[in-house]
Design a protein that fits this description.
about 210 residues; 8-stranded parallel barrel; 8 strands; Thiamine-phosphate synthase; EC 2.5.1.3; thiamine-phosphate diphosphorylase activity; ThiamineP_synth_sf; thiamine biosynthesis
């Protein structure tokens, strides 16, 4: 299995990041402790995703943080991203794996215990589980599952899991207590006046979690 440090997973939002841009937000967040940066832009075409992704890859070079592309397989391959993340409605995991090859990390969103249990660890490297809470950064999200639901899905899932959905620094303990390997955040970093400080606050909470 291809491995990924899911502890602090930043999902970029182009609208929230508009003040300083996605690249500078990512650079600052990684300086504060983010281990993963996902490029998610539902309104961008593949050409723009590639342009932004290449700028992000250059900005993250040498930091150890991994770059994930959301949904767009063609962009992920063209960028040479570290990972592709897909949802249940995007394409099936075997097709995505065939498109990206064996070396690239593949993440898959799961929202129910049934879906979590059907994840194939020979194909998928990690799961994004949620939403834990309702969030305005993803208008079409499924029903929130809460921390109890997170724990149930993590137990059912055969691959490492990152929790997502309205999460902030104050939720770090609950996320890890539920068995997840990290938390994905959007507004807790994107759009803040100091993304590096916001990431560092979350990272310090993570460091204090007994594991």
């Amino acid at each position: 299995m291809r491995t990924i440090d899911l502890s602090l997973y930043l999902v970029l939002d182009p609208d929230l990041c508009a003040g300083i841009g996605m690249v500078e937000t990512a650079r600052a967040a990684v300086a504060g402790g983010a281990s993963v940066v996902q490029l998610r832009d539902k309104h961008a075409d593949t050409a723009l995703m590639i342009k932004t992704g290449r700028a992000l890859k250059a900005a993250l070079s040498g930091t150890g943080a991994l770059l994930v592309v959301n949904d767009d397989v063609e962009a992920a391959v063209a960028i040479g991203a570290d990972a592709l993340h897909i949802g249940q409605e995007d394409m099936d995991a075997p097709t995505a794996r065939a498109r990206i090859g064996d070396a690239m990390i593949l993440g898959l969103s799961v929202e129910t215990e049934a879906l979590a249990g059907r994840v194939d660890p020979a194909i998928v490297d990690y799961a994004g589980i949620g939403p834990v809470f309702a969030t305005s950064t993803k208008a079409d999200h499924k029903e929130p599952i809460g921390f109890d639901g997170l724990a149930r899905l993590v137990r059912a899932c055969p691959v490492p899991a990152v929790a997502i959905g309205g999460l902030k620094a104050a939720h770090v303990g609950n996320v890890f207590a539920a068995g997840a390997d990290g938390l994905a955040v959007v507004s807790a970093i994107c759009g803040t006046h100091d993304p590096e400080a916001a990431a560092r606050e979350i990272f310090e909470h993570i460091r204090r979690v007994p594991r």
